Amino acid sequence: MVSRTFRTRAMAATVAALALGLAACGSSGSGDSSTDAASGGGDSGDLITVGFSQVGAESGWRAANTKSIQDTLTKDNGFDLKFSDAQQKQENQIQAIRSYIAQGVDYIAFSPVVESGWDAVLEEAKQANIPVILTDRAVDSEDTSLYKTFIGSDFVEEGKRIGEWVSDNLGTEPINVVELQGTTGSAPAIDRKQGFEDATKGNPNVKIIASQTGNFTRAEGKTVMEGFLQAYPDIDVVYAHNDDMGLGAIEAIEAAGKVPGKDIKIVSIDGVKDGMTALSEGKINYIVECNPLLGPDLADIIKTLQSGGTVEPRIVTHDDAFDQAAATAALPTRQY
Ligand code: GZL
């Protein structure tokens, strides 16, 4: 399948070749008025300075996403990466973005911990002529000129795929579902909930009896699941918005003397190694992947813009889905 990402890469390669040609003629390849390249930007010589504000280190997915970005935006690849961890606090991300603006970086990229509250700081970046790239999560700003592109998965689709599998495979009889939501106000939490509801609303057998945030962490997923087990004696399915909360739910279910994957089915999203291992062991029943390896695409996007090219406003990364057999087959070669 030729993903949009592949198309971006092909376009970047073409534009980069053109830029090299122009450079050979003594031009910096600055391109036309559509160029978003901010000249200079710090004391990094020919390196492209990029300020990246990461959500935090809350999950296995986030660790893989951070590694992909740090392994790709290296000096050898032409980048000077300034990286910050916001510990899942929006105020820390806003502070980091303002710091990057003050440093005069060439580009700012970030994964917004929540959808709202970004217009002011993104307007400051725009006034400073620093292009912004959204990775992983979206913002709800009406003004799409505040950022160059949003690259990440389609979270509504992920929730729908989970809901369709639950409806088709478990919803043949009445089932009580408890939902471990991601971080309140975050795009993945909002959209994964919506997608699941859209996919299951036509099946009267599927009933969501409780829904609460576990903030995408294993510990909080376990705590919330312990509460659910206390409050609801007849839980059939756990819908976890990410593997880490699903793994926390496994701990709670086992502590309650029940068998995860059998007494209580679990479905989740991400496809990180620990989640896929639990799936291959039958403790989780189905996983929809959310590809965290966004580093190469981010590098392609920046190089395309730096060479005077333009990129699509929305780049959707490809996600696969796994049952137990598929997880067992995929594990030996998984990159994360
Ligand atoms: C999704 C990403 C989510 C993951 C979680 O793209 O933002 O945040 O699903 C992570 O594991 O914490």
TrEMBL record:
Claim: rRNA-binding is one of the keywords in the record: no
PROSITE patterns membership: PROKAR_LIPOPROTEIN
Pfam families on file: Peripla_BP_4 (PF13407)
Gene Ontology cellular component annotations, sorted alphabetically: cell envelope
Keywords per UniProt: Signal
Major localization class: other
Matches recorded under Gene3D superfamilies: 3.40.50.2300
Listed GO MF terms: carbohydrate binding
KW Ribonucleoprotein (keyword) present: no
Subcellular location: Cell envelope
Signal peptide: 1-19
Periplasmic binding protein domain boundaries: 51-288
Entry's family note: Belongs to the bacterial solute-binding protein 2 family.
Descriptive protein name: LacI family transcriptional regulator
Lineage per the UniProt record: Bacteria, Bacillati, Actinomycetota, Actinomycetes, Micrococcales
